[in-house]
Amino acid sequence: MTALLASVRSSAEALDAAHAGAALIDLKEPGAGALGGVAVGEIARIVRELRSHYPVKPISATIGDLPTDAFDEIAARVIDVSNAGVDYVKVGVTPGPDAARCLTLLASLPASVVPVLLSDDGADEALAAFAGGLGFAGIVFDTASKDGRTLFDCVDAPTLSRCLCAAGARGSMTCVAGSLGWAQLAQIRALGPDIAGFRTALCDETEGRAGRLDPKRVARLADALHHPVQAASVA
After folding, report:
1. Catalytic center at which residues (predicted)?
2. Pick the catalytic residue: 28, 57, 146, 216?
3. How far apart are CA 12 and CA 20, in angstroms?
């Protein structure tokens, strides 16, 4: 069964998403980019408030959008975000000459890092396998550009399936994200990742990913993921 990860920007959204059935809560600021970071002090405050109501709900947070070769800044931000109390720290990694070095660095840090393999130009199977061998708690396949294309527009299903298998071969959780919504439910179910991440589909249609998260949308989508036979009628 694929669990729903809800990306939220505030404590109010975090509590709404958790109450509505999101299995994982992901902290990021959609107005600051694909993996826009919430201020570290605010992350700590949201974590405290959420854990007072949901003490075992997994929480992740991004470090913000940084170039893959910004090794020192990436390492520093990972430690800062980890120290804010989250369970997982998400870091975007763009395929290219610096990707393997960045992944190796992330695996060496004293934090539970989840690399986000940005796949706008296709998924790199070799990189997915390399990441899968480094012992990360999870690996995400996502897109950096929020231009209307979904992950499935950028990566064909057979390639994505092979990448998920390679990434999860040694026990890492696998996650898909990237402007996903109701139209992609059948593809998500066919792939069967451990987690599917959403933001835009959880917000009011008129405002998109920058709008307010709607807990009713969270509940409907979580239910559809948990009960795939009913998903078509719910949509």
Report:
1. 28 (schiff-base intermediate with substrate), 90 (proton acceptor)
2. 28
3. 12
What span, in angstroms and rounded, lies between the C-alpha atoms of 164 and 176?
Answer: 9
Residue 67: CB atoms within 10 Å: 12
Q: CATH number, domain at 214?
A: 3.20.20.70
| pLDDT per position as a tens digit, 3-38 | 999 999 999 999 999 999 999 999 999 989 889 999
Q: Which residue range forms the structural domain that includes residue 146?
A: 3-234
- Average pLDDT in the chain: 94
- Does the reported pTM lie above 0.90? yes
pLDDT digits (tens, 9 = 90+) for 156-175: 999 999 999 999 999 999 99
Number of domains forming the structure of the chain: 1
- The HSE-up count of residue 223 (CA atoms within 13 Å, CB side) is 14
The pLDDT assigned to 209 comes to 86
Kindly tell me the sign of the dihedral angle through the C-alpha atoms of 27, 56, 22, 91.
positive
Q: Would residue 90 show up in a list of annotated catalytic residues for this protein?
A: yes
HSE-CB of 155 using CA atoms within 13 angstroms: 28
DSSP string, 149-210: --HHHHS-HHHHHHHHHHHTTTS-EEEE-SS--GGGHHHHHHH--SEEEESGGGB-TTTGGG
Q: Which of 141-150 are b and which e, b meaning 16 or more Cβ less than 10 Å from the residue's Cβ? A: bbbbebeeeb
